[in-house]
Amino acid sequence: MSTQPSFRQRPWFLLGMRGIFSIPALVLTSAVVGFCGFAYEAGISYGQAVFMMGIIWALPAQFVLIGAILAGASLPAAALAVTLSSMRLMPMVAALVPEIRTKSTPTWVLLVVSHFVAVTSWVFTMERLDRVPREGRVAFFTGFGLTLTTVNIVVVSVSYGVISHLPAMIGGALFFLTPIYFLTSIWASARGLEVYLAMVIGLVLGPAFHMADEELGLLYAGIIGGTLAFFLERLIAARRRAKSAV
Predict the structure, then answer these.
(1) DSSP strand E in 85-194: where?
(2) Cystine design at 175: which of 34, 77, 84, 231 (Cβ 3.0–4.6 Å)?
(3) What is the rounded CA–CA span in Å between residue 61 and residue 59?
(4) Is the backbone of residue 72 left (phi > 0), alpha (psi -120 to 50) or beta?
């Protein structure tokens, strides 16, 4: 079998690896240090923390799992909680795969690289795909996702327990980097008005619903905010069509 295609894709794989020096990757790595402190304080062992970073590979799901452990949840309940928190990544996979696959891309390759889909890797890749030829996109995404995962596994290995000796303000700042980065990244990569509307409405409704119901407030805010954003976008689009028809 010819190895020519692999040689063609190698530069794109290496270019994806270089993304580890980007601002998104550096912010995520800083947030991973915060995760190490949380895992350490929660009694998660060194090996378990490293394993979680490589296998679960999504900070929110990792926090959900540790929260379930601290709450004394059963194994099926903890697994269900992690699964539900990770369902948010399904639309990202559905949007990314058609953009990176070619007619000759094996299905098993797409299944493997889908493991690396998370907010950081998805936003980083989607913002740069227009500069990558289609035949090099799988290699580009794999290079970035694999490198990002590996580096953060190393970060967990090195910094586990270290953050517990840092001032509380520094630890809190590292935790806070994650939601700030997620918000700014999703806003910057949004391609439709409904996304902006959903984020604004969610930011308004989120605190109010959390005060009303600490356990399910975020879920209510997401369902109601997303529904309102959907119908508002339809209403605005209909008015624009009506104006253009006049």
Answers:
(1) none
(2) 34
(3) 5
(4) left
Cβ neighbour number for residue 97 with a 10 Å cutoff: 17
Residue whose token pair is 């407030």: 217
Nearby residues of 194 by Cβ (< 8 Å), 6 or more positions away: 229, 230, 232, 233
Burial 192-230 (b: 16+ CB within 10 A, else e): eebbebbbebbeebbeebeeeeeeebeebbbeebbebbe
Q: How many helices (H) and strands (E) does the chain have?
A: 12, 0
Q: What share of the chain is helix, strand, coil (3-state, %, to 5)?
A: 85, 0, 15
Name the residue among 131, 236, 149, 245 with its Cα closest to residue 194: 236
pTM above 0.85? no
What pLDDT score does 22 carry? 87
Q: Own/partner pairs for 233-236, CB < 8 Å, 24+ apart?
A: 233/192, 233/193, 233/194, 233/197, 236/193
DSSP state of 115: G
Which amino acid is residue 239, in one-letter code?
R
